[in-house]
Design a protein that fits this description.
By secondary structure, the protein is mostly helical. 61% of the residues lie in helices and 0% in strands.
Length: 150
């Protein structure tokens, strides 16, 4: 879970905002951060540095023009494409923001109440939402609430 400070949007009650944050904390406990979430920026910088060194070595030994594409392609391939292919992970999302991360019945009901209260006050961001049962669905709700300016 991101450790940035967020302010509560104006059109959501304190109880609803706290309920959504509690569900996020429950999911973060159940699905703790993995290596990609914990060490992603460091790994990206390391892979970028290594790929630049490999590109320089390849260009010194062999010298084709495409060796300079290695630093452009390698970090993204290693830290974005491969985790998506092998683990179904999207970089920049918490580990619980995944279709297989299930909300328990209590958390799903809490999020459902928050969505209904936002729909009652006419919030169009939540007009099409109904039931939230997976981590990726909840992540969309969580982001909309956190990014909503009120």
């Amino acid at each position: 879970m991101n450790k940035h400070l967020f302010t509560k949007p104006d059109d959501i009650s304190d109880q609803d905002f706290q309920a959504v944050e509690d569900v996020a904390r429950h999911l973060a406990k159940r699905y703790p951060p993995d290596w990609l979430e914990r060490d992603g920026p460091t790994l990206y910088a390391t892979s970028l540095a290594i790929s630049f060194l490999v590109a320089i070595l390849v260009s010194l030994v062999w010298g084709p023009w495409w060796s300079f594409a290695i630093p452009l392609i390698a970090p993204g391939a290693i830290l974005i494409v491969l985790p998506q292919l092998f683990f179904g992970r999207d970089v920049g999302k918490p580990r619980w923001a995944h279709p297989l991360a299930a909300l328990d019945l209590q958390d799903s009901a809490r999020v459902g109440r928050v969505i209904k209260s936002l729909q009652k006050i006419g919030n169009q961001d939540f007009a099409e939402m109904q039931v939230v049962v997976s981590g990726d669905q909840f992540f969309r709700v969580w982001l909309r609430i956190r990014n909503h300016t009120g």
